[in-house]
């Protein structure tokens, strides 16, 4: 394979390579872009780690900081990484609870990609002496991925003392 061709999803991208990138000031799922998955014939994970995720407490307006982990098994589309970076940046002035942020991210990626499986884990830094680390997942209904999602949920973080997230 010589490389991805324009007709394989590149012609639809507006952010990658654009030197006049606009950084969203407010939550904006419309910034997300997808390209064709050239390997839809197999299962594989795509993983993103965003150690500089920020959002705001909806009541106090104080900043919350997290490492956001996103892992998914694509179907016909994959998310373009610069658009994902700008999308996650758009939470910077967004006021929501930690649990809401991870679920919103997951829902927006499901809507964009119609993927097979996804999990989103936000490991927030402690504030007020407590950390909150919400985790959510989804498997496409009626498929083996739905069973996978249930299994991973039931077995998630069974040994939290071995989770080094700070």
TrEMBL record:
Keyword flag NADP: yes
GO CC terms of this entry: cytoplasm
Q: Which Pfam families match?
A: QueF
Q: What is its main location?
A: cytoplasm
Tell me which residues this entry annotates as catalytic: 57, 64
Q: What protein family does this chain belong to?
A: Belongs to the GTP cyclohydrolase I family. QueF type 1 subfamily.
Primary role: Catalyzes the NADPH-dependent reduction of 7-cyano-7-deazaguanine (preQ0) to 7-aminomethyl-7-deazaguanine (preQ1).
Q: Under what name is this protein listed?
A: NADPH-dependent 7-cyano-7-deazaguanine reductase
